[in-house]
Amino acid sequence: SSTGDSAYRNEPPQDPGTEKDRVRVIVRVRPLNSRETEKSDRSILYCERENSITVEGAKHSRRFTFDSAFDVTSTQEEVFHYSGVKRLVDMAIDGYISTCFAYGQTGSGKTHTMIGPGGANIFRMDENFRIKNFGLVPRAINYLFQQLREKSHETNAPYYIRVSYCEIYNEQIHDLISPSHSDHLQIRGSIEDGFYVENLFQTYIETMDELLTILEEGELNRAMASHNLNDTSSRSHAMLSIQIEQDIQGTDDQKEQMTRQGKLVFVDLAGSEKVKASLSKGKQLTETNNINKSLLVLGTCISALSDSVKRAGHIPYRDSKLTRLLADSLGGHGITLMIACISPASSCENESLSTLRYANRAKNIENVPIVKTDSKENVINRLKHEVRKLKDENHEL
Ligand code: ADP
Ligand code: MG
After folding, report:
1. Backbone torsions φ then ψ of 389, nearest 5 degrees
2. According to its UniProt record, where is this protein mainly located (predicted)?
3. Is the beta carbon of 24 within 6 A of some atom in ligand 1?
4. 112 pocket-lining for ligand 1 (C-beta < 6 Å)
5. Is the CB of 235 under 6 A from ligand 1?
6. What residues contact 10, with CB distance under 8 A and at least 6 apart?
7. Which atom from ligand 1 is nearest to the alpha carbon of 105?
């Protein structure tokens, strides 16, 4: 299979359903912060040749290579440009499931890289600051709408964009667009057909600004929950899903109208650090257990998928909410980019090494991307069903 670095842009796999596509992995090192500089922490990470990173540990020195390595001087624009996110957007427009997830310990720069400095705060900054400091998600949204404008000139069929935004905290799913609508959200589906969150609020959007507003509101809701509930944001997984649908003509022998259903998913994972046992009492114990559970299962799935012997066996996707929702992204039919975020500080050596080892394993995971289509009739029926259910719920209120 061709997994070379020639960007796949506008060049989907030749033979859909058989061509393998390796999970791409990039790493970004954030600068030392003032707290670290004050206690004269030093930097032990060095990036070389744009794709390798060396950890000068207390005892050993270790080198890792990835698809790209971004050092402390990298700008948001450079990370967007060389991360492969554009390819994810292009493929999602073409009907694939594209996923980008950020992994790393709390404070390593996941939210900074995905959204921008301060998460929700960036939306309150002036326009010049926003343009310069926006993270991958707003940049990808901007690129998505650019591409859609160009493509809808080429094809005559319009695109429909639906968006949902949720958070998994303590193995419970919360709606970040419509928080009051959050009770008992359950995952439905199967590994074969894909998993989804039932009753999650979804909204059609038509412009980039509408989508950015939803992102801002979602980030604010996330920050608010974190303020009320003891910093949940470092312990929750936030998942933004942008569904991109387009009606296409069926093939000759199949006159039925089809809808192509691509999806672009961004996940800002919970902090990967081990939760200290001293914090784990009573309610906190169940919380940390469950939170560890999602990340633990993610780790187990990544290890199994990256091992050619275990890959053939059972992958425990079903053991956590996070891994069910990421099943297509890891060893499934999607296209995936992992961003490993790390602190350069010597005091973070163990956590950084642990992140780099995870990332190193994820590199070996192979997906077999396929375009998702469904008959237009099915799509319409499903939407009608959802509308009916929402109406019923409103009656109950
Ligand atoms: P996480 O989401 O992984 O917990 P954050 O993204 O909130 O971490 O980053 C922690 C702090 O470090 C924030 O103040 C953030 O703005 C800053 N930071 C992270 N990455 C960078 C970077 N590449 N350049 C400058 N500051 C950064
Ligand atoms: Mg964060």
Report:
1. -65, -40
2. cytoplasm
3. no
4. yes
5. no
6. 90
7. 3
The protein residue with its alpha carbon nearest to ligand 1, atom 5, reads 109
Residue 30 Cβ inside 6 Å of ligand 1? The answer reads yes
Cβ of 107 less than 6 Å from ligand 1 = yes
ipTM score? 0.99
204-236 b/e with 16+ CB inside 10 Å = b?
ebeebeebbebbbbbbbbbbebbeeeeebbbbb
For residue 326, the SS3 value is coil
Calculate the alpha carbon distances from 374 to 238, 245, 258, 259, 361 in Å.
Answer: 27, 10, 6, 5, 34
d(CA 200, CA 208): 21
Task: Tell me how far the alpha carbon of residue 103 lies from the centroid of ligand 2, in angstroms.
Answer: 10
Ligand 1, pocket-test mutation among 78, 112, 121, most atoms within 8 A of CB: 112
Ligand nearest to the CA of 35: 1
- CA-nearest of 277, 278, 304, 303 to 292 is 277
Chain segment 326-378, per-residue pLDDT in tens = 988 888 888 999 999 999 999 999 999 999 999 999 998 888 888 877 777 77
359, 24 contact by CB (below 8 A) = no
Q: CB within 8 A of 157, min separation 6: which ones?
A: 246, 247, 248
Task: Specify binding-site residues.
Answer: 104-111
What angle separates helix 283-305 from helix 349-362, to the nearest 10 degrees? 40
Q: What is the pLDDT of residues 113-145, one digit of tens each?
A: 999 999 989 999 999 999 999 999 999 999 999
